[in-house]
Structures are given as C-alpha cells and as structure tokens.
Amino acid sequence: MDINECLSEFQIIGSRITKLNIINDFILFDNDQNAERKLDLSHEVNEVVQDEDGKSHGVVSLYIDVEVLDGQKEYRLNLGIEGCFECGAETGEDTFTKMLEINGITTLYSIARAFVLSVTPQTLVDGSIVLPMINVFSYSKNLADAETEQEATKEDERED
C-alpha cells in the first residue's frame, strides 16, 4: 500500500514553544493526591494566507495554564505553543480556518501533552503532570456558544 494515498490535505509544517513558565512548591508529586487541579485552554488563529500555488498556510497559537493546589503548595505551568499548518489548493479559506481550529488545536495539544509529560518530571524529585485528553469539538462548540451569548447580550444592551 502506498501511504501517500492516505495522506491528509492538512499538514503541520512545524511547531515551537513560545512560552514556558513554571512555579513549583512541590518536591514530590503524587498523581493520586487530593489536590485541586485546574486546566485552562485558549487559542488564536494568527494568520491565514494563500501562496501563489493556491495552498493555504495558517498559524495557530495554543495557550495552556495548569494549576495544582494542595494546601500551601502550588504548581503552576503556563505554556504557549505555536504551529504552522498548510492545506492544498482544493480547500477553501473558510474550511481551512475551521480545520485550524479543530485539527490544528488537536495536533498542538498532543504535542503539548508530550512536552509537559517530559518537562514536569525534571522540576520534581518524583512525579509528573499528565494533561488530560480533551474533546476539541466540545471546546470549539463551547467557545462558539459563549460568543453567540455575548453577541446576544450586546444586542440586548443596544436595544435598551
């Protein structure tokens, strides 16, 4: 079987870590402890352009904030990761932008999960932080619902 027949039109060109900030009061980290854990995720589609061949290129930035609190101890990790993606000329700009917001975020989050799993054991004597799997479709839907609600609120305020 020729694997080229199975390649997706949507491909990652590359990624880079743009921000890493860690605050750590833990010496040992037990993943079973009853610490309060928070995860916050946000993103930006920074740039979408088409080249002379009609291929679309886009950049997505993903921001992940992790917080683990246990009494007076805290572990905070702020991570920024950026990825550049491309898609063939057959894919329109609107479709490509939607792909960036689903496929791009999914790809970057997977890279970030591996990065956090690699970095956090180096900041602790024992233990690590494992980012949970997320449903990017639900994440995108929640963002769209929140945006629709904000627009409705603004419209109601204008009518008053």
Report on this model:
It is flat, with a radius of gyration of 19 Å. The protein has helices at residues 93-119, 136-159, and strands spanning 11-24, 36-50, 56-70, 73-87. It is α+β, with helices and mostly antiparallel strands. A hairpin with a 2-residue loop joins strand 3 (56-70) and strand 4 (73-87). The mean pLDDT is 89. The chain is 32% helix and 37% strand.
Keywords:
single chain, alpha+beta, 32% helix, 37% strand, flat
Could you tell me the strand content as a percent range? 35-45%
Terminal Cα span:
64 Å
**Number of strand segments:** 4
Order of helices and strands: EEEEHH
What is the average per-residue confidence, as pLDDT, rounded to a whole number? 89
Contiguous helical run count: 2
Strand order of the largest sheet: 1-4-3-2
Assign an overall shape: flat
Give the low-confidence spans.
none
Oligomer: single chain
Decide which structural class fits the backbone. alpha+beta
Question: What about the largest sheet?
Answer: 4 strands, antiparallel
Helicity, in percent? 25-40%
C-alpha Rg (nearest Å): 19 Å
